[in-house]
Design brief:
Order of helices and strands: HHHHHHHHHEEEHEEE
Largest sheet: 6 strands, mixed
Structural class: alpha+beta
Mean pLDDT: 74
Number of strands: 6
Strand content: 5-15%
Number of helices: 10
Helix content: 25-40%
Strand order of the largest sheet: 4-5-1-2-3-6
Radius of gyration: 31 Å
Low-confidence stretches: 162-172, 232-288
């Protein structure tokens, strides 16, 4: 009587497993419902069913919520947690993990490696420094060979791990405090060169610097970089000596060039991190 009737069915969830079973010739046990489900109800059932998977990760849960929020299937976390049977606190952590940039999440070998316990250190580090600095740290970690240890990745991103020496420039000798070398002009203080704790260099001038002088100073530093080829000299001990700083280009007609008092060991600077600051102490000065 009903042999000529045909039916069409739609899978609400478990689609991937149904396809695998059909390909392998395994019979599928399914619940058939004559009631058409709303998109919201289908979403909640999918979350409940996928939560039983061993490889269902916090990031997966967070992404599902963010997608549902964008599609306006839910209005808040509390509603989603109740309908899906999820712990509200864990849901909040999952959402924050899923909100991290792809450049961070892709550092892990598989998404299942990112566990709830990584939420606080990663989220605090991501919001505690500039986003650019955090992503630069991710670029360094991305050079590590795979497979990678998830705990090591988190430690490196949060500044609690030791980066491999091959991933960073040869370190300078450790500094316990910044080293300052005064700059003098006609026997009076004219500024200073500061070697920071991280090896960076800051040059500060306390006198007015005209544009052409700024260009000469920049050219002199560039010439030094070109001569050194980016290589740092070996540290040598020695007594302080005076090394004149000669600006390349047009000479100043009204004033002499400043003299730098320093030591050989203090010249072992990381010039990849040079920062120049010109402090104008005159009323008509110019900052470069």
């Amino acid at each position: 009587m009903g042999s000529d009737l045909t039916f069409q069915f739609a899978a609400d969830y478990g689609i991937c497993r149904i396809r695998c079973c059909l390909e392998l010739g395994i019979k599928v046990t399914a619940i058939v419902s004559s009631t058409e489900l709303s998109d919201q109800k289908r979403l909640f059932l999918r979350v409940q069913e996928n939560s039983c998977r061993n490889d269902f990760s916090p990031v997966d849960l967070g992404r599902i919520y963010l997608d549902a929020l964008e599609r306006k299937l839910v209005t808040n976390q509390a509603e989603f947690a109740v309908e899906c049977g999820r712990d509200p606190a864990l849901l909040s952590k999952a959402i924050k993990l899923a909100s991290l940039p792809p450049a961070i999440l892709n550092l892990f070998d598989q998404i299942q490696d990112i566990q709830y316990r990584y939420y606080k250190p990663l989220w605090d580090a991501y919001n505690g420094v500039s986003k650019d600095d955090f992503l630069q740290a991710a670029e360094v970690v991305d050079q590590l060979p795979r497979p990678r240890n998830p705990d090591e990745i988190v430690a490196l991103l949060t500044g609690k791990g030791q980066q491999q020496k091959s991933l960073e420039p040869a370190p300078l000798e450790p500094f316990k405090a910044a080293i300052e070398t005064p700059l003098n002009w006609k026997g009076k203080p004219a500024g200073k060169v500061t070697l920071m704790e991280d090896g960076g260099v800051e040059i500060t001038l306390d006198r007015k610097l005209e544009l052409e002088k700024y260009e000469e100073l920049a050219a002199s530093i560039q010439a030094f970089l070109d001569r050194s080829g980016g290589k740092r000299p070996k540290t040598r001990g020695g007594t302080p000596k005076k090394a004149p700083v000669r600006a390349r280009g047009r000479k100043a007609s009204e004033q002499e060039e400043p003299t730098v008092t320093t030591t050989d060991s203090q010249l072992d600077l990381d010039l990849h991190a040079v920062e120049m600051t010109v402090n104008d102490t005159s009323s008509d000065g110019m900052k470069a």
